Amino acid sequence: MKEEHGTIFASRLKEKRESKGLTQTELASILGYKNYTTISKWESGDSLPRGRELKILAEFFNISSDYLLGIEKEIKSSSIETIYNKLEPPRQKVVLDTAEQQLEEQHEKQNNVVNLKDDLYEGSIVKNGVDTMAARFADPTKGLPEGVTIEELKAFLEAEAKRQGFENRPD
Fold first, then answer.
1. SS3 of 98, please?
2. 108-124, pLDDT tens digit by residue?
3. Following DSSP, what letter does each residue of 24-61 receive, concatenated?
């Protein structure tokens, strides 16, 4: 049984690697190996990856480890794709339109983010007073807190700039 799974694994690994346009050396580098010999041994069926390596390969190729080993016969599609494919074309259009609308709204929301690490802000309140701002927000790494607008953030930064004696700040 191990030989069968090894042969299936070898061919599936090679197929997935080639479908991404990678050489054995490139895949080895991505996985943190010094050279291609490990990949070569896997693809020739001389050895199989350990559990951790198998998991990393499956995640990299966005497939299950069971598929790589030959336990599953087909690549399982995601649940949303499975549901979408069962819908009639008019309903598929509704799903696609809704998804596109949601993505557009997400991008609009993301475009309201101010990059505080930009070199443009060197010497400004952003570089010198971020600690004060961060102390007022529960988790500054997650962006603006719920309900805080860009205008409120700008007003806060302007007030903090004045308080700390900064006259000119970039817009």
1. helix
2. 766 555 454 545 445 55
3. HHHHHHHHT-SSSHHHHHHHHTS----HHHHHHHHHHH
